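To: structure desk
From: M.T.
Subject: fold request, one chain
Message: Could you run this one when you get a chance? Sequence is below, nothing fancy, just the single chain.
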Amino acid sequence: MIGDFQLSTRVCGEIKRIKFGSSTDFESYNDLAASLKDDRVHYQSADRHNLFEVNYLILEIQQIEDPKTHEIRTAPITCGWFDMQKLESLLLTLELSFDVHIKVTHSMKETAELIYILYNHELKGEKFVEPTNPEPRPKTLYEQQIYFLSGLLGCGYKKAVQLLEVDITPLAVIKRIRDTKLLTTKSGNPKGIDPEVPVKGFGYTFFVENQALLLLDGKKYE
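Reply: Done. Structure tokens follow.
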């Protein structure tokens, strides 16, 4: 068999792994860089291009949690002579020269799931549609608090961090939203809020929308 997997007489693919050699020193093992350096990936892609209609290259770039900072780290895509600029150039060559469909995963499980999806699409004769990758699930308490607050209307990750820096806990943020007074002019136009948030980006609209989100019975407004 040519490649690491064959889904039918018309579809096959190769898997290249970029992974950490150790969970403590974060050295990387770069299967892709090695195969690019000795030119294997080019003639392998050429062979698959000549024999199959559809040719996939899955880049499995490992992610692990840093035991010291608890941050999600992605295996570095560098290996001596090899860097991101060369990677982009080489992958573009593969796409244009051999019509390689390049997909990215972050674990063996994700790779297996992707191959399963591709296989089912091939069985049904359907065109594969790129699935949307969900954001990494928050692990630490602080990440979970940010994730929770980023669900507020007009918030997002950066604003959630700002709110936590001011109010420390999500409950304090919710209380601030509940207790903030919405100020209007005599004619009823928005004027401001009281008290104001000591960081930019949180004005009248943010509070009026999120007071409605948190305090009103949504079923009555459907």
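Reply (cont.): The chain is about 40% helix and 20% strand. Let me know if you need anything else for the meeting.
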